[in-house]
Amino acid sequence: MNATDHSAVLERQLLLQLGDRLKRLRKAQGLGTVAMAQRVGISRTTLSAVEAGDPGPSIGTYLRVMSLLGVGGELALLAGDTLQPPLPDIAAARSRRAKPVVQVLVSVDETRHQIQDLQSLALHEEAVRRVRADPALLQQAQATLERWLQSGPSRSSGLWKEWQTILAQGQWRKALGRTRRAQALRQASPLTTVLPEDARQNILAQVRELRQGVLLGDAMNKAAP
Predict the structure, then answer these.
(1) Distance between CA 1 and CA 180 in Å, rounded?
(2) Taking the C-alpha atoms of 67, 73, 76 and 81 in order, what is their torsion angle to the nearest 10 degrees?
(3) pLDDT tens-digit profile of 111-126?
(4) Is residue 149 helix, strand or coil?
(5) Is residue 140 a contact partner of residue 194, using CB atoms and an 8 Å limit?
(6) Cα 40 from chain centroid?
(7) Whole-model pTM?
(8) pLDDT by residue (tens digit) across 58-72?
(9) CA distances from 172 to 18, 165, 199 (A)
(10) Strands, E assignment, 74-218
(11) CA distance 180 to 86
(12) Residue 98's Cα: distance from chain center in Å?
């Protein structure tokens, strides 16, 4: 399907795919994380964030990693004049030849549970954004967590206790990573209970669109009214 605008979930998936690609390129070139971080001039923690598709690192950091791996020109292309429409008084604008059609299909590999991970991540990122803006929502999540803990022993008790620290200290990155521990934390999370239903349904709708495949490029622009 065509994307008429950029959704938060789509942008997140693009970053995740970029991080995965950079990690594969690093390994293909025989570079360990220590050597790679030293060459780029960043910490291993920052490199891990880049390879996880974390939105935290700056675009400059992503570009430095891409440049060292030999794919920096792809990002530079997006910022250059190549993708800009030609000025009306130059030959390119007067040409009758059809311009090349550039399309990119963005989707999610459901065989690896990526769609569930992406949905969970998007829901939690939205919840964190709202909690940071409204302390009352943080108190709501903490109250929910306390009810869960008082309900009796559970296989999730250890994760809930860890959530007590995350909520109290604002350690959001622990639950927003792509590690197995972060995924386990999100599965036992009280945080998404603060999301209003319309916000939840908006994210779920974006995930459904991505499941079908979102087409970016010239075809998208032509389809727009």
Answers:
(1) 32
(2) 160
(3) 556 788 889 999 999 9
(4) helix
(5) yes
(6) 22
(7) 0.71
(8) 988 998 999 999 887
(9) 22, 10, 19
(10) 103-106, 214-217
(11) 48
(12) 35
